[in-house]
Amino acid sequence: MRPWIMLAPLLLAGCAGSYEAPRLTEKQTVELEKALAGKVPGEKVSCISMRPQNSFRAISGNVLLYRVSGTLIYKNELIGSCPGLARGDTMIVRPFGSQYCRGDIATSADLMTGMTTGSCALGDFTPYRTPGK
Predict the structure, then answer these.
(1) What are the pLDDT digits (tens) for 104-121?
(2) Domain limits at 35?
């Protein structure tokens, strides 16, 4: 038997680790809390409608906000991380249809150099709404 065949299970086990999202910095935490202040989280959804004039706002390389109105914001925790977003790079999402959905591929890119700086996927969307009075 070849020795490398015996090592194959060990090599595969090393690839099976879980991904842990980077923690938000203090500044990012304050920015997120300010954006969601006074809003209450709802049940996560897998897809949301794309709306003209709306865009994602990166809080970090793995947390995005999508403002629908003054009373509704969706928070998305990316699957993986697009670290360039934390530096102000542009996010490019490739949706499959007329909605943004969990699993849609996103990349971050530095428009000055034209280089891709990260690749990730959208996660579930958590709605944050201002409660009615």
Answers:
(1) 999 999 989 989 988 999
(2) 26-129
